[in-house]
UniProtKB/TrEMBL annotation:
Span of domain Secretion system C-terminal sorting: 249-310
Lineage of source species: Bacteria, Pseudomonadati, Bacteroidota, Chitinophagia, Chitinophagales
Pfam families, A to Z: Por_Secre_tail
Keyword terms, alphabetized: Signal
InterPro entries to which the protein is assigned, alphabetical: Ig-like_fold, Secre_tail
Signal peptide: 1-18
Signal among keywords: yes
Identification of the protein by name: T9SS type A sorting domain-containing protein
Length: 314
């Protein structure tokens, strides 16, 4: 009976759900109080070290964690070690670093090990296949990725891809600071399983309150994943902008939070560019008398921010 209970406990332990552990303060890797998850990072846990935070590795950590995202500093003492799984990656972002240690200090993957002393600066990555500069290679070509604010203060994300390979799904994550506290905003399936390229869009219906950062988490069928670049919608965009009227005969008036040089692009319902206008005033008028009747989408970009809305040409 005791043997059966022991096996059951082992199974429960083995298949416990992996956690997300973010360093909440400077401290040792091996101290539970360092981590938001309340325990030392365990098997499959995804670990984040945010900007301005230093975590020091002092022990021989043989449990294979998930991804390790570093915007702060991971510092090794002599002979200390962190282990990661075959599908894991260490992502060192701009401003992040791995420091310290002697040749006995190691970052260990099943098929690749990097030894100290460490002096690794971001942006760079380390995974089971080796080490590289810049962001880890994506299992697709991300042609474009942008965020814009709608007139109702909701955010629209749009991205286009090429050469999709072995993609399982794409998660959209958001954060208030761009380096930690990432939350799942939504999930989308790939439009194709192999090859080709497509355009995606996602609407975050949570109204903007301050800056908001977004990234894509691209997950393949083997459970491996990488992150896209980060895009931001700034708090200055929460100020009101508008077009009037939205049922248009000949012209419409655009009002922006501030004056400045920028461009308006008008697209028809099929995504085809119908008209472009440059502007340098806070309020200006656009002649749309030559457009055919139908629904149109307006994108306004002033070099810092972008706005998206729509109107109907009568």
């Amino acid at each position: 009976m005791n043997k059966i209970i022991g096996i059951a406990l082992l199974l429960i332990s083995t298949y416990a759900k992996a956690a997300s552990c973010s360093a909440s303060k400077n401290g040792n890797w091996e101290s539970a109080t360092t981590w938001s998850c309340g325990h030392v990072p365990g098997a499959g846990d995804n670990v984040t070290i945010g900007t301005g935070i230093t975590v020091t590795v002092t022990g021989n950590n043989t449990v294979e964690i998930g991804n390790l995202d570093i915007s702060g500093t991971l510092d090794f003492t002599n002979g200390s070690k962190v282990s990661l799984g075959s599908g894991s990656a260490v992502n060192i972002y701009s401003g992040g670093s791995i420091t310290g240690g002697n040749p006995g200090a190691k970052l260990v993957f099943p098929s690749f090990t990097i030894k100290g002393p460490f002096s690794v600066e971001g942006p760079s990555y380390i995974n089971n296949n080796g080490q590289g500069s810049g962001a880890a290679p994506l299992p697709l070509k991300l042609v474009s990725f942008a965020a814009s604010l709608q007139q109702n203060q909701q955010v629209i994300l749009r991205w286009t891809t090429a050469n999709e390979e072995n993609i399982n799904f794409i998660e959209i994550e958001s954060s208030d600071n761009g380096s930690s506290g990432w939350q799942l905003a939504g999930t989308t399936s790939p439009m194709v399983s192999e090859g080709g390229g497509y355009s995606y869009s996602f609407s975050d219906r949570n109204k903007l309150n301050g800056d908001r950062y977004y990234r894509l988490k691209i997950v393949d069928r083997d459970g491996k994943y990488v992150f896209s670049k980060v895009v931001v919608v700034t708090s200055s965009q929460t100020e009101k902008f508008s077009i009037t009227p939205t049922l248009v005969n000949n012209s419409m008036t655009v009002s922006l939070p501030a004056s400045g040089l920028g461009q308006v692009s008008i697209f028809n319902a099929f995504g085809q560019l119908a008209k472009t206008v440059t502007f340098d005033n806070q309020t200006f008028t656009i002649d749309v008398s030559m457009l055919s009747r139908g629904l149109y989408f307006v994108k306004l970009a002033d070099g810092r921010n972008s706005y998206t809305t729509r109107f109907f040409k009568q």
